[in-house]
Fold each of these.
Amino acid sequence: NSTVNVPSLRENPTIIPVLIRNHLEKVSQKDGFQTPELDSAALKVLCQYHWPENIRELHSVLDRILAVATSRNDISLNQIPLEISQPKIQPKKTKLNKLEYLQQRTLKRSVVLYGSGLHKGLKTGLILQPLPPESGIIFSHISSGQTIPARLENIISTNYSTTLHKGKASVATIEHIMAVLHMYHITNLLIKVGDEVPVMDGSSKDFCELIEDGGIEEQDKSCQELIIDKKYTFGTYEKGSSHISIEPSDTFKVSYHMEYPAPIGVMDHTFENIDDKKFKEE
């Protein structure tokens, strides 16, 4: 039996540029595009990072960059994931003194769905594609090629629908697909779409079936689950106003109260996620 010694990137940072070049050449030859070049700032950051998971982590990060790049001609500093380009901040324990970790997930294969937008009424669709660990949920505006990570800082509107915006591109009505990704614990996914996510029948049923058709793949990275340590409230309880609050619970439970003039009137509904099938059925 022979043993293969894998060099430590932390102890041998001088080999990182060679490994990067070799991997980019391998991927570009396989997928049929010109090998991209790294600018000096991007290369410096990659060489200075400590790479706790060594070469496998380096390859995974490069794959993530290529998967969401709008152009594969070059790679600049702003395309390097934040956890690599900026120092990591260690998570603090909550008052519950408990940190939960879940396995990251993506899809096994790409899937496509066609429908119409809710607000514009135009025919639209979306393509879901797997992404490597640590990628997150990323929307890709098909006509412009702009990528928009599903992050709080990219939300520009929640009036009637949730809309993401970056550069000159916007993607509206993302709430249904995002709810499904949360319930299925999908953490890494590329969503190619036009100006608006299709509404389908108004529920999340078609999106649930789309995820199940693509198949769920457990990845070799974990992610920290958010723990709610106390009650938080935004808004006011005054009549005619709106508010939302979250508080600790042993299950995922949502209660909705609505007061409209007649004939709609007062409506209440509570959803509690007991098992994976309940969300799809309701």
Amino acid sequence: MAQEGSTELFIRRAHWRDFDAVASLVAQCGAGSLLPERRTLRRFRNIVHDLGNDLYLAFSRDVLVGLVHIVYVRELVAPRRAEISSIFVSPGVANVGVGEFLLSFARKRAQKRDCQVVVFRASESNRSVVPLLAAGGFRQAGQWYVADLLQEEHPQGLKEG
């Protein structure tokens, strides 16, 4: 549980049963529609159960107010990285710190996964996130926004080595 401004937030990993709430949030944010079709439901279940990514939901008073989807990438020669695939905040709680909370949470999860960078790919459909990234210490590199984690402290309880 975290306190952000005047909004008390609870964050947890998504479950397959959260599809309707997630679909509603995505629609509220104007990011399209997730229809409860067999293929979409299967894709959602696969995302929720895939250990190569995290889908976390933020709640305020048992109402879904935000989500962050993080995909972890391991390549043969490149450093481990976390890509923020999606970050959505309900328009009803805009500007109260939910986005900052989700971004901070994503960075901590990436550190726990030994990622060296967190990246976000900006596009026309998600330009509203860019000011949040800039305020969160991300630097622009073309259409990507990048935060280096090497200089940051590891979360409490993790050992380096």
